[in-house]
Amino acid sequence: MTSAVPASVDDVAAGLRAAGYLPGESTALVSYLAARLGKPVLVEGPAGVGKTELAKALSRYLGRTLVRLQCYEGLDEAKALYEWNYRKQLLRIQAEADGTGWDAVQDDIFGEEFLLSRPLMQAIATEEPVVLLIDEIDKTDQEFEAMLLELLSDFQITIPELGRIEARTHPVVLLTSNNTRELTEALKRRCLYLWLDYPSTEHELEIVRLHAPELAETTARKLVEVVQQVRELDLKKPPSIAESIDWARALLLLGADDIDQDVFRETMSIIVKHRTDLDTVAERVGVRLGATA
Amino acid sequence: MTFDARILQLGEALRAEGVAIGTSELNDAFAALEQVPWEVPVDFRAALSATLAKSPEDRRVFDLVFERFFFRAAEEQALRHEVREGGEDGITGGERIELDNLREQLLQAIRDGDDAAMRDLARLAIAAFGRRGEGSGVLGVDVQRIRRALGLRSEPGGPVQEDSSEPLPRLTREQIRRFEAHLRRELERAQIERTQALPPSRPLTELDRALPTGPLQDLAAVHRVVAQLKRRLATQGHEVRGRKRHAHVDVRRTMRASLQTGGVPVVLKYRPRRPRRPELYVLCDVSTSVTSASVFFLSVLHALHDAFRKMRSFVFVERISEVTDVFERERSFRAASEAISKDAGVADVSGYTDYGRVWNEFLAQVQDDLHPRATVIVLGDARTNGRDPRADVFARIAAHAGRTFWLNPEPRLYWNYGDSVIATYERYCEAYECWTTRQLEDFVKALTRPQFA
Which of A48, B104, B186, B244 holds its CA 20 to 30 A away from the CA of A186? Predict the structure, then answer.
């Protein structure tokens, strides 16, 4: 495993492949730029196209630990950055012998020893460089984005009592967003942008074959083509790549060697997960498949 | 012209199309280009798009501008240095191109997605069918004429498993479109060579950008105003209540503060009053009498959904229908408005607004959830079509909610003329004239005025 900076775009592409992730056209390039320039990457795209997976693959490829911060509404700095361990601080004071001067205690209890570091702090404080994944940033409030700015542009955190904590190592930062709300310009400005979309037929076929190698080539191809057709329909939730893989595995388990109407009807619920969508898909796609041979 | 200046020009061209590109973006672009072998077209483009275009909308504009920009730049250089493609004799002359052979090769190239081959074949096709100098003068028309002459037809719905006994294997629409793009470029190139001049550069058409079109809705502007609205709503009412201390002592913070005084809790810390999460209920009229305004209203709704987490939206004509989930699901404005017009199911028979019924249904749906912290905003023209306005029900809604606003898309001059009954409702709410973003801004400003209720 190389923990050094990758040498070329092709290196990254090959590395990600080896880590079990098939990068699309610009994915490898943007990852490479992120590692070289030390800039965070904002990854956007529909749900289930492998945004989070990319971060995991990157961490495997670079041989770095993955530090993950799952965002949710109401996430604040005490949970994302750092917090003072006040219980420990209290104990420290009480354990103090009487003779100690106030100044000494004062300095003592606001030291790093009493700091509880949260994911963002961990990511920049470790000795070994890490991959930092800030997942679903669009779930948080805009105020939280503002808090990230210092970290993302300068890789430092300012703690009032301690001063500025600068990163010992530069993490590779990935932020993912499902694009449910517009992120602030300030945040975008600090990031490289990667738009992940549903892959092309060939690309998705490769992915499915990678994750379900026992599935026959022809069946896999048909599966991918059906999934792509389903995606073209106007559905509440179009099937993701993860779901095509699940479907492929399900077909393997069932021992189906072809996708005909019957098999499709029975296993459709793996890729389509809304009552109304099921009807639409059965009507529009199911009938096009050949009847049971 | 130097390479750097070209990139800066590209930045300018993107800015002209409304992509927000700051100096830092351009710096990043240069930094990225240093890392990437820029002779590789795909990488060059990906590096630029990763640093310059940071949203799906921007990405689309970027793709269009990038194509045009470098095509024009290359042609400009070719003109200056009098480079010609030598098409005059090379292609039209000597060898007659065999049509079947050409089509065969073309299908192969299109299916393989081989851009270089497609480009060459596009040139051959133009030579074969182009009737040099007799083109219609409109590129789009020529492109379609050549495509038809080649017998390229797309199959509706993408490639399906079919027996391959068909004489002409079908192509997907996407594949055809790619070839058409090549045709168009080559036609344009030929035109430039003929006339020895670049056609004037045009801004992208609205259609190209695939952003909602129409007279009033500058979506970005609406979003900006709504962001303001959010802050105003979040802070409103604080000044009325004054800075009363909160009753709850925050033990954790008190202990932590006590460390400053050696563990003795000298200063009590109170739990901070959470900034109020404004809760919004928005009702939007989508009947025919407000057709022109409803696009604007929907874009306001859309923007509100971006800014507020706790928000429920409804559309109504004769009946009311909750569309909160539509907006939560659909990021793109166009998709959302399509989904609403398709399956909201709010029009019964007449298609005329029935306010009385709408109030009743609304109250029935949300009565239990309405509370004094909620804000109700109605977007509609208050034209009842002669039906009972049921102002009493509206009054009950207003009484349950904290504040109630009415945004009317009609100029104030027309209010209360004909079947407009805005005056009846105005007694229970604050009504504003609102059909442009400027007026929306006025509304937001009005929100900050102290309230006497």
Answer: A48
